[in-house]
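Please, structure for the following, as tokens.
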Amino acid sequence: MTALVGVRGVPASALQNMRRDLRARQQPILVATNSAIRHALERAVKERPSLAPLLDQVEDQTAVLAAEGNPFALFQQFVRTRSPTPARGGEIAPADILVPAGTTSFKPGPIVGELQHAGFPAAIEKGKVVLKKDITIVKAGGVISREVATMLTRLDIFPLEVGLSLRAVVEGDTFYPASVLSVDLDAQRAELVRAARGALGLALAIGYATPETAPLLLTKAHRAALAVAIAAGYATPETIEPLFAQAMREAAAVAKAAKITGT
């Protein structure tokens, strides 16, 4: 499969390490200018038309990767390369940046005014600097100002991520954008487990025999037959013991009733 990878914000030293790791996985990655990548894709499209959608993904800082395997597994592999990093100011917030209320580690002083000036609801309570309420300091798509970035870093809030991002993959004739590849595997596994349990329950309820349900259906039928035999008083090696126990209980009940009535 052929993939386009975003490398924006990855330090040169980290990128070299990542490229070395990818080569060890037999997944060579090539960083080039966007014009060179577009030119190469335009030539390749003549022989592989399925690569054409990748042309729309060539933007910002881009690399090309060749790999074997599952596109979804490759996406998760790239997700694991990403880690939180502080903002410096001027970046676009990838998601809402929420600052929770609570006590900070700051000592009372000028920091309170600095926080308030940056838009944080800071105050002094009981000799400590606190943030009085939760606040979304920057909404998704908004620009993170230098003042806000500085305060976020001092609060140990790192709103950005650094690492390789898989933009799109072409495997055979199929094009996979990042929006399709971004799958919560744990949630999908849980959903499959729930579906399997539901299907098994339905099959048992309607008596549908399969290699999976046959042993359970036989057990269910055996329990039902045993209950009918006991209810009918039909003696077999399996029912004689519960029938005897039932007779003893009934005899005890009769004796108790006779004792109460004095008969």
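The chain has three domains: 2-82+163-183, 97-159, 189-261. The radius of gyration is 34 Å.
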